[in-house]
Task: structure prediction
Amino acid sequence: MTDLAMTDLDAGFRPLTRARGDVPADRQCLRCAATFRSAGFGERICKHCKTQASWKSDMPLATGGRGDRTAG
Result:
């Protein structure tokens, strides 16, 4: 064990564990509404949507309103 790891253990750090509800499950994609197998509750976008150029460039799926966030 390295000195750093021993220091972490002495300081009371624990290995990361999954939350009780963080389990693989069939979930609905938040972009296209397709059902897909998710690795955990943090994964809500299907692999197909993640391969799209709009996802990679961080563009919104659809625009609404004026397109800015200023109060007016």
Summary: The two ends are 59 Å apart (CA to CA).
